[in-house]
Amino acid sequence: xxxxxxxxxxxxxxxxxxxxxxxxxSEASKKQIFQAVAYSVKDLIIEQWMETHRVYEEEDxxxxxYLSMEFLMGRALGNNIINLKTNKVVEETLRELGLKLEDVxxxxxxxxxxxxxxxxxxxxxxxxxxxxGYPVIGCGIRYKxxxxxxxIENGYQMEVPDDWLRDGNPFExxxxxxxxxxxFGGYVRMTKDENGREKYIQExxxxxxxxxxxxxxxxxxxxxVNSLRIWDAEAIDHFNLxxxxxxxxxxxxxxQNLARSICEVLYPNDNHYAGKELRLKQQYFFVSxxxxxxxxxxxxxxxxxxxxxxxxxxxxxxxxxxVTVAELMRILLDDYDxxxxxxxxxxxxxxxxxxxxxxxxxxxxxxxxxxxxxxxRIYQIVEEIxxxxxxxxxxxxxxxxxxxxxxxxxxxxxxxxxxxAIVGSFSxxxxxxxxxxxxxxxxxxxxxxxxxxxxxxxxxxxTQRRFLLHGNPLLANWVTSKIGSEWITHLEHMKKLETxxxxxxxxxxxxxxxxxNKVRLAxxxxxxNKIEVDPNSIFDVQVKRLHEYKRQLLNIxxxxxxxxxxxxxxxxxxxxxxxxxxxxASAGYRRAKAIIKLINSVGEVVNNDKTIGGKIKVxxxxxxxxxxxxxxxxxxxxxxxxxxxxxxxxxTGNMKFMLxxxxxxxxxxxxxxxxxxxxxxxNAFIFGLSSDEVIxxxxxxGYNPKDIYNQDLGIRTIMTHMIDGYYAxxxxxxxxEVHNSLLDNFGGERADQFFILKDFRSYVExxxxxxxxxxxxxxxxxxxxxxxxxxxxxxxxxxxEEYVEDIWKLEKVTVEL
Length: 817
Ligand code: 7GP
Description:
The protein is of the alpha/beta class. It has 2 domains: 60-75 and 110-460 and 802-808, Rossmann fold (3-Layer(aba) Sandwich), CATH 3.40.50.2000; 474-690 and 754-794, 3-Layer(aba) Sandwich (Rossmann fold), CATH 3.40.50. Strands 1, 2, 5, 6, 9, 10, 11, 12, 16 and 17 form a 10-stranded mixed beta sheet that branches. The protein has a 6-stranded parallel beta sheet with strand order 20-19-18-21-22-23, with helices on both faces. The radius of gyration is 27 Å and the shape is globular. The protein starts with 5 loop residues before the first helix and ends in a 9-residue tail after the last helix. N-[ethoxy(oxo)acetyl]-beta-D-glucopyranosylamine (7GP) binds at residues 116-118, 121, 270-271, 318, 356-357, 362, 431, 460, 648-652, 670.
């Protein structure tokens, strides 16, 4: 079937409700209706999915395998029906059944197989690849529990497991016949084959069965459906167990447990490395399964494995899948008998690596003993890669020890995954211009000097299908009414909106839409937070993972400052402001959790202080995730992008805000730099140290925040209120660590390492400019429209075309039905 009429869809929903739940539509719960609708939609997708596969087979296409530990997909139903262009039919059919599409969409669990930027970027990329008609397989892990659900209790974050598969996932398809075995542990035995060639055989290992589940990635209105392939681990069938034959009961049970544990849970760290053994198991598990499958698939149609790079690319999403380099080598050496040089040639033409952070605490390093024990054959190969690479370095730099220290893959008892990824890849890219420059000139300087041709920039992007068409239908329709619908697949067309930016009628229409979206968010806040916020106030929003470098602390300190000013002068004339936060903290990140508590404590005091007449409100949105993000972006006036310059590799939320007509208040960091380049400095609020200044201070060992503290009464007052019970009457120590971190060196950590006090006054000034600007409605409307109009560059379609052109070299396909 190609499309549904309303009657057909109605019948299909009725059938599914009956078959799945033995019920009629009127008796079914909303959740059951969601399942029935989703299955009906899947029936439409299937035809296109099969046809896409057929074309891929027939044309023997080159495919990119996008290897990622995280895919933060967000809900599928709403976007699938938009991309299938069947949303109107679904909406009307449901209405006739007495249901609202929005309510049915709300029943879908929000698949959260990712933490933040890196995982969401992967999701946008897959959607763009389908929309542009390029062959991709997203390869990841089918975590049983995704990102935890955040509950705020008494101002504290609590983590609740996210059992997203409880009711089953209607869109997924288990692919039993594509299962492969992944081997852990044991030892490697060397023998010789009949030609006297050395062979390495892993023995006495623990096998795990990797079974893929495929999810459809529907392109926009082009019949292309790619797959996200997420792997689940199963124990080997008992009766096939070697060890059972030998009566090794314990080993059999161990293998059961290994399989059970691997895909149990997503590690909730963002921009931070925890070094857990289970994490390495996860990495090797999904990498080995994906690479094995890719090679098997290739060999179905080709004779010579040495031509693999003509049809296959492995794109490594950060270093989490870096073992790909060694796993591919293993397969080429051990299974296909290539020589080392031949295998290395293939590998380094197939792998490409993207770096997503310069934060040093995110650098993955594995202790040799742990690594070698878990992956004995892979370790041998990494050692050999390192040995040969070190020879090269010694030769080139005449035994310069500094070079060895920086560039070695194995050093100081540890395996450095970034170095492995760089050495094993033909392409290394950063995710925004500034970030790539910092990689080349600082972080990865030595590698850049050795192989400059590998380095390139791919500024991130976002999909406008989800973050405007689905998330903000009012604005999407308005844009289409002005400039037509080409923007949906060619975001650069937004530029045509510029001519409307000065038109008073258009300005009013635009601001009315913003207002309605603010009303929608205000209702959500009323319902979830029991706080009344005024849709006429400025919605000033910071939503992203909680991290010190992202400086939510700077934001809330400004709120504390403003509150002090209001207390001193309750009649002070300010434009009412609603400060909106949303952020999950990694479960083990103590200081981040304290900052969440601080935000909530400040909110508690400010929101309930009658003397300030409701001029400022603070709202912390619980359980920030893709689904509520879509609504939040649509309602924002101010986009807070205030990371310490140099620390945010790109940011992608900044682009989503811009697309929805929020104005950036930010530092010259990550992709903010390019946002300003597009929209103009006059249509953004920029403040703070530049990345060069930050880097300079860091090289000098930091700065002394006490100088600022001693001179600035405003800062001193709010800091004192962190520890005098003003916001934490029962426990004066609650925020002491946060407070002290701004003033004192501690352990190896510099005082105020993220330059909060240093940037504070500049931030306050920028906030005052925001206030002034908002008082001029014409100016604000114009600037907001210009932000939308100049967001064209930030479509992930543009980013993907650049990857295709410079790195992947894929051909576009067309799928006809
Ligand atoms: C993030 C970066 O922090 C963010 O700036 C960027 O926009 C995003 O990747 C996509 O490129 N990094 C992570 O989420 C992360 O965990 C460590 O990086 C591996």
